[in-house]
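Why do we bother with holo predictions? Because pocket geometry can differ from the apo form. Keep that in mind while you read this record for 5-O-phosphono-beta-D-ribofuranosylamine.
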Amino acid sequence: MKKIAVFASGSGSNFQAIVDAVNAGTLDAEIRLLVCDQPSAIVLQRTQEAKIDSFCISPKDFTDKTAFEKEIVQQLKSRDVEFIVLAGYMRLIGSTILQEYAESIVNIHPSLLPAFPGKDAIGQAMDAGVQISGLTIHYVDAGMDTGPIIVQKEIKIHENDTRDDVQKRIQQAEHICYPKVLQELFTKETTNSVPRFVGKVF
Ligand code: GRF
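The structure, written out:
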């Protein structure tokens, strides 16, 4: 059973999908902690309902990023966390966390990276007029959405789609894909639905 922490800053619908998969027995993980940097984030309500420990932390309370991340690492280590799952965490992971959790941090991003990294990936894709966007699950490195790609899924953008339409479609796919890919990473089993090849689109 992999001991994980989920990092989120917002609504936490991906966090919820991971909780649901754990509860359904389709994801062999134990969610030891939810780390959040926004005290009013909806994801914190979800942790209460799910009875999962949460830790809310603001960088403003620390002299620098190193001190901020050292506190997070301490919280993770005290709960024996082995793996970090970023799910809408709106902050770059710095060297302190990266060193402690090398190759054990993944992120989900709502575009086909390397296209449209950073904020509002869906808006960026729509402004660019692309007809296909999607989602990417990737390992985290020091860059902004630049780590090695694990899996991507294409989502079509139709002519009359609003931003909300596209976001809804991408998030529906995220909620299915993220728990499946995590299970694949944690168990190293091969399934037909989730290829493990870097860069594979499914
Ligand atoms: C997701 O669309 C994810 O791709 C991006 O942030 C969003 C988080 O949504 N990194 P939620 O908080 O899980 O609902």
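The chain has two domains: 1-102, 108-202.
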